[in-house]
Amino acid sequence: MKKLLKLEHFSELIKDGDKLLVGGFGLSGTPLSLIDEIATSGKKNLTVVSNNLGEKGKGLGKLLVSGNLKKAIGSYFTTNGDAVNAWSKGELEIELVPQGTLAEAIRCGGAGIGGFYTKTAVGTKLAEGKHQMTFDDGDYILEKAIKGDVALIKALKADTLGNLIYDQTGRNFNPVMATAAKLVIAEVDEIVEAGEIKPEEIVTPHLFVDYVVVTKYVKEGGRYVEPATTN
Amino acid sequence: MKKLLKLEHFSELIKDGDKLLVGGFGLSGTPLSLIDEIATSGKKNLTVVSNNLGEKGKGLGKLLVSGNLKKAIGSYFTTNGDAVNAWSKGELEIELVPQGTLAEAIRCGGAGIGGFYTKTAVGTKLAEGKHQMTFDDGDYILEKAIKGDVALIKALKADTLGNLIYDQTGRNFNPVMATAAKLVIAEVDEIVEAGEIKPEEIVTPHLFVDYVVVTKYVKEGGRYVEPATTN
Amino acid sequence: MSQQQRIKIARRIAEEFEDNQIINLGVGIPTLIPDYIEGKDVYLHSENGLLGMGPTPEEEFVNMDLISASKKPVSVETGASIFDSSDSFLMIRGGHVDVAVLGTLQVDETGEVANWAVPGQNILGVGGAMDLVAGAKKIIIATMHTSKDGTPKLLKKLTFPSSGVRKVDMIVTEHAVFEFKDEKMFLIEVLSDITLEELKEITPASYELSTKKLIRV
Amino acid sequence: MSQQQRIKIARRIAEEFEDNQIINLGVGIPTLIPDYIEGKDVYLHSENGLLGMGPTPEEEFVNMDLISASKKPVSVETGASIFDSSDSFLMIRGGHVDVAVLGTLQVDETGEVANWAVPGQNILGVGGAMDLVAGAKKIIIATMHTSKDGTPKLLKKLTFPSSGVRKVDMIVTEHAVFEFKDEKMFLIEVLSDITLEELKEITPASYELSTKKLIRV
């Protein structure tokens, strides 16, 4: 399988200062193994675009502890105390984006669209400085496309070509992020033969996916846990 | 099933002057039964948004013959001689939109987005009079959202709630059109029980669908044909 | 605030729902509502990508990849569908969600809502609040009448940052139900034994009595 | 124009493809190309919503809901995927298609292309042409060197309406292959027994000879 990547080689694909699009909603549908690799990689000044920064010490929260981050762009960081602290101390920049605007801006990044007009946030602090235009049914603000250097996404299964399907609401931001970065790496539970996923059921076609990595986590009781080391 | 509509009651839902979004690519994925009803309804001054106007005398082409149309908005009408003639005689207005812009403008109509910036058509006749803006990587033009009064779409199956799946490339414009009209009517080959289509495989969730009509056509040799009358 | 009062609010809001509606429930009091939707075919929309959200599953069926927008494990109802975040907010922003029930920090007498940020505090979360305010067909606010320290929430003018120019349609508190019409606020029901004078005292917002249908429950 | 010449063009363009590329083939000569992609793992993208388009099926497997952008029945390769028109053009406009092979009416010496409309004639079709011109990573033009009546197609300046400001990367005709670099046109191969003088005569566009690699086939 041409796109298969070993987990230990993954962090070589990330450069200091990169902008990463990271799938997930909290810890759901999150590429936990890829995040772990970054946390131990010593990479610096990364910008992460993700709905949240995981939870305190978990998922993307690990990157706050290990000091890889310069900036976070997302919709909700309040529940991760480490993010709040780092921001208060001036150690982390935060750009707050309404959740729907975030999803749509990333989709635009993948779709060759420069920006879009939305009613979301019109008349609020989050609209300050943004271009406003009046359409037939009221005022809209311009939101610009978001693109990344690398997208880290989490899927349930890849086939050998790199086509992806997702597990339930673990889908969330992953399919749009898969479209919007120069390099797209998918962490999956399982790899199946091409043809096993029906054409109509593929959510992310393989043309979006550069590499597939098999997760090191195992799902027990509905939650991903690190497997006991086997040595 | 609450959303089930009899074909003979369908045209009551259409008013003179309505703007209809009609799914399909040529005759593929096209709501042929619904179109037939309109052709015999005597409705006037309809605007149709569709990639094509079917073929000469077939699909949406029938509405040219029966004189229901005032205007067509789409990407490719050249291959339907009736459309070319009607336009030449001033009997049909045509608004030409690049195919990708058409799909995206309809999606925006469904998504509460006022408009979007695309590179498609920059510097061409089709960009004339359109607002232009420069982003990081060049010039874009503003394309406004397209919405309809009624969307007529064609799906393979509906479940009893109105969730839809499509047959292969018969999907085409149907899912985006299902989002972008005040009233959405789906013509389907078959209705199955809710739960028979898996949550991950539903392409059009039922919240977009107002009514479901079972097609009067049957598929023979891979093509939809009118069944022999049974009387 | 007592759980009983919160339940009263949830119960009253559930009465507003109609068959076949698509409902999005925010965090806080709105999460209590599912227990009180009886005999109505409504469909719960969750902004992380689920239509047809069902109740909390038994522990053995918990899957952290099947959660609500509050990040709690949920189940799926028959006929549920899964979609990505951009499609989920297409539904919200595009007006395909019939009712959003939201918590709030403040509402003013025109129906403008402030439900994401407190001045002087860290503003690090907005989530889907502004998208729902901009896009849901009907917005119902579920809130205690005042904050814990007695500070009014229903005001003449917002002092906290606005969540958008779109006005809400209804407010339900433990004491009363208000409706908005043309940016004017109307008291339509009293839900507790509070007197109209006492209600006025804890409600700086100006409102009229909807004499036609004012109900004391 | 002879079918042999059209096949020569198709064959030559197929040589440009690399393993794992995503290819979109326009109408006309480009539709001949699939027969000449041998031993290369490329994936055909069809703008009506298919990646992994396979050859024309046997009559018994024809399904009018499985067609190409030219509206002809096709099959699907193993690992193919189906998507809607908005996602299909997300791929095109977003730069996810590696190579688009397009027919044309005219190309100018900077690589600007006119492939949708003839002045004075009815302009009633554009299809996906402008989206492909704007979005594909590499654009190869497949065209007869002149139109049927001998009118040149490779010009100093377009006289037909432009398909977009984005310049094409390569032109392949029955006589020659041209590459564009920084909006300059280079002759890199001669594919027929035409002399360089004869080629110049039927090619009003100014081009340089790429001396390093000019090949006569």
TrEMBL record, chains A, B:
The keyword Isomerase does not apply. One of its GO terms (molecular function) is CoA-transferase activity. It comes from the Bacteria. It holds the Pfam family CoA_trans. Keywords: Transferase. InterPro entries: 3-oxoacid_CoA-transf_A, CoA_trans_fam_I, CoA_transf_BS, NagB/RpiA_transferase-like. The keyword Transferase applies. NCBIfam families: pcaI_scoA_fam. Belongs to the 3-oxoacid CoA-transferase subunit A family. This is Succinyl-CoA--3-ketoacid-CoA transferase. It comes from Planococcus halotolerans. The lineage of its organism: Bacteria, Bacillati, Bacillota, Bacilli, Bacillales.
UniProtKB/TrEMBL annotation, chains C, D:
GO terms for molecular function: CoA-transferase activity. The keyword Glycosyltransferase does not apply. PROSITE patterns: COA_TRANSF_2. The keyword Plastid does not apply. It holds the Pfam family CoA_trans. It comes from the Bacteria. Keywords: Transferase. Coiled coil: none annotated. Belongs to the 3-oxoacid CoA-transferase subunit B family. This is Succinyl-CoA--3-ketoacid-CoA transferase.
